[in-house]
Structure formats: C-alpha cells, structure tokens
Write a sequence for this structure.
C-alpha cells in the first residue's frame, strides 16, 4: 500500500454541493401576472360568455347565430375591416417612404432622429386627446378650415366633413404611419449597401434593383407590418367614439353599446362580437408572426 492510497482511503468524502436556488423567475412574475389578468382571463371570459344566455346563463348558440342573422352586426365588421385596410395600406406606404428617406436618404441626422422621436410619441397619441386635436384643427370652426375660408375656399361646402368614414380614416392615419416608421425601420437598416452596389456593378437600373432585390427582401416585412397596422386600427375604440359619437357603426362601438345595455342591448351578443374580433386579431397575429420570421433571416 502506498502513501497516496492510504491518504485517499482515510480522507473523508466531500459532501455534494447543495443546488443553488435561483430567484431569477421572480423577475418575470409581473409579466405572467399581467398576461393572466389582462389577456388570458379576459379572453377566456369572452369565449365562455359568448355561449351563455345573458338572462338565464344557460349554454346557447343564439349569440353566435345572431351575428349571422343580423345585417347590422355583420355590417359593423365590414366597416371596421374596410377602415383598417384603408388606414393600414395608406399608413404603411406613407410610413415606409418616410422611414426609407430618413434611414437611407440624404436627410440630415438630426432630422432623422427627430422623425423617430415624433413617431414614438405620435404612435401612442390616440383616444380622446387625438379626437379633440382634430376637432380643433378640421372641424367647421377649426384652425385649418378657418384659414381655408379666409382664402375663399370652404371644404365643407364641397363634401368634406370630419365626422364621416373618410374623416375618421384621416384621423386614424395620424397614429398609423408613425407606427409603420418604428416597426419597419429595423428591416430598412438591415438592407446592405453592398447589395445596391453589386446590382449597379452588374448594370441593373434602380427599377430592377427594387424589383429583383429590395422588394423581395422587404416584402415580408412590409406585409407583416401592414398586418400589424390592420390590427392596431381594428381594435381602436376611444378615438372613433369621441370623434363621431357612435354614428359610424364600427364593431368596437357596437360592442360597447351592447355591453352597456343601451336601448335593447344584449350582453351575450356583445361577447359574441368580441369573440369574432378575437378570431380576426388572432389570424392577424399569426400572419404577422409568420412574415416576421421570414424577415429575420435577412436581419441576422
């Protein structure tokens, strides 16, 4: 027996180290709590109450059937979808042009930074303050309309009014295009200048560069961001309610009147309308996620 063997045999065995407790999960607890209280619980409530009679609380399909039997309810979906599509496409195109000119154009750096700052503020400026701002600007007694009358032209005498569908679309555009600027900016920054230089060296024109290089790369990002804008407009409520007083039958306004019990309101139908909105929003989120994954391949 050697000395080393004796030392190994006589030495006490080391105790296994206790697993360290990780408290990192506490940092994400507020997120999970917020998700449960403001997403999962309300969504499950909408699904359950869509199939309950608002009077007897018995299971029924009458609320869902009422959506398809009522032309008024189906029209509210169509008006909301049409408004969302118009503002998503218009805001998407305008926002993309602004973002591209700020990031890839020859604008001074301070102007590009100012545009991004404005977009961050304007994309969250909605609801009653936004409605009041446009009333002060474009109502019959608004500032711009007063200037136009002083120049001998009154838009309200030529068919324009702020309180119609197109007037509401103009208001929605105010918070749609800044959101487009913020979301599409990373995709534009991911465009490499080497691609443009390579296409020019190969004799491609600007049109050919956009047709065969830029648009195929930016296409998924553009489509995905417009889908995001669609969902942003589709779920808006306070701006339209404050501006038009419920005169335009958006689905969000109809839901509010049904849940409040105005005149012949039916809470069950209101929850069924909300379920339809959840389905449409879920489809929009899925489309945005799929297109965003395709975009990320070029941003790595």
């Amino acid at each position: 027996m050697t000395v080393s063997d004796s030392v190994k045999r006589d030495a006490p065995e080391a105790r296994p180290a206790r697993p360290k407790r990780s408290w990192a999960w506490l940092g994400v607890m507020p997120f999970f709590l917020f998700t449960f209280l403001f997403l999962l619980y309300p969504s499950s409530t909408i699904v359950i109450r869509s199939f309950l009679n608002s009077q007897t609380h018995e299971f029924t399909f009458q609320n869902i059937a009422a959506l398809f039997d009522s032309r008024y309810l189906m029209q509210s979906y169509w008006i909301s979808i049409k408004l969302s599509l118009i503002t998503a496409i218009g805001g998407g195109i305008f926002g993309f042009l602004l973002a591209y000119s700020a990031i890839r154009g020859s604008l001074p750096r301070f102007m590009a930074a100012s545009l991004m700052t404005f977009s961050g503020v304007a994309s969250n400026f909605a609801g009653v303050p936004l409605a009041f701002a446009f009333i002060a600007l474009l109502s019959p007694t608004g500032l711009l309309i007063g200037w136009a009358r002083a120049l001998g032209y009154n838009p309200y005498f030529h068919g324009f009014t702020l309180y119609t569908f197109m007037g509401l679309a103009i208001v929605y555009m105010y918070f749609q295009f800044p959101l487009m600027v913020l979301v599409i900016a990373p995709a534009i920054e991911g465009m490499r200048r080497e691609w443009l230089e390579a296409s020019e060296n190969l004799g491609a024109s600007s049109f050919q560069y956009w047709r065969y290089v830029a648009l195929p790369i930016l296409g998924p990002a553009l489509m995905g961001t417009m889908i995001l804008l669609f969902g942003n407009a589709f779920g808006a409520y306070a701006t339209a309610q404050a501006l038009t007083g419920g005169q335009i039958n958006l689905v969000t306004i109809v839901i509010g009147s049904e849940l409040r019990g105005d005149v012949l309101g039916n809470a069950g139908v209101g929850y069924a309308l909300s379920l339809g909105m959840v389905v449409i929003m879920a489809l929009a989120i899925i489309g945005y996620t799929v297109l965003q994954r395709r975009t990320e391949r070029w941003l790595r």
Observations:
- The CA atoms of residues 53 and 133 lie 41 Å apart.
